[in-house]
Amino acid sequence: GGDTGRRQVGVVASTVRGVFNGVIGTSAAQAALALIGFWLASVPGTVLLAMGTFFLSVVPGGPVLLWLPAAIWLKVHGETGWAIFMVAWGFIIISGADNILRPLLIGKGVQAPLALIFIGVIGGILAFGFLGLFIGPTLLAIAYNLFLDWLAGREAKPTQPTQPAT
């Protein structure tokens, strides 16, 4: 593939690295925000719930499976104000962080438009499951960069094999 092939290998590496950093960074931020919310509302098992939030944050909408039952628990135990706080904190702060941080972190260092990477993440997850989180944006980034090369009229120039020294 010549120069084009080498560029595409760089695109693959930067895309996978960007998606990985975006997923881990967003999960860490959501876990920290959940920890603060659970602690403020005096929900028991705060650290364990925050750790669970970290792991569930990989799945879109995953943290809801922890903060919503915590809000229900608060309501059942007569803490209506804290239950309302927990729902608001969960929707606005925890889930909001996913909507803001994930695209920003994934977009850093990726050699394609953010919207294309986002479509790749969603389509990849729908088509391939968890691995699609990496496969989808990588395939779209490669296709995008190949398309740009085609528009620019660049062709892959084969590399000349090196001659052994005699």
Question: What would the keywords be for this entry?
Answer:
single chain; 166 residues; mainly alpha; 6 helices
In short:
The protein is mainly alpha-helical and 166 residues long. Helices cover 77% and strands 0% of the residues.
Total beta strands: 0
Round the mean pLDDT to the nearest integer and report it: 85
What profile does the largest beta sheet have?
none
What letter string, H or E per element, gives the SSE order?
HHHHHH
> Percentage of helical residues?
over 70%
Low-confidence stretches: none
Counting DSSP H or I runs of 4 or more residues, the number of helices is 6
Radius of gyration: 22 Å
Derived from helix and strand composition plus strand pairing, the structural class reads mainly alpha
Termini, distance in Å? 28 Å
Oligomeric state as shown:
single chain
User: What fraction of the residues are assigned to beta strands by DSSP?
Assistant: under 5%
- Rough outline: elongated
SSE topology:
Elements: H1 2-40, H2 46-56, H3 64-76, H4 80-107, H5 114-128, H6 132-152
Provide a descriptive summary of the structure in words.
The chain starts with a helix and ends in a 14-residue tail after the last helix. It has six helices and no strands. The mean pLDDT is 85. α1 runs antiparallel to α6 and α3 (64-76) runs antiparallel to α4 (80-107). With 166 residues, the protein is mainly alpha-helical. The chain is 77% helix and 0% strand.
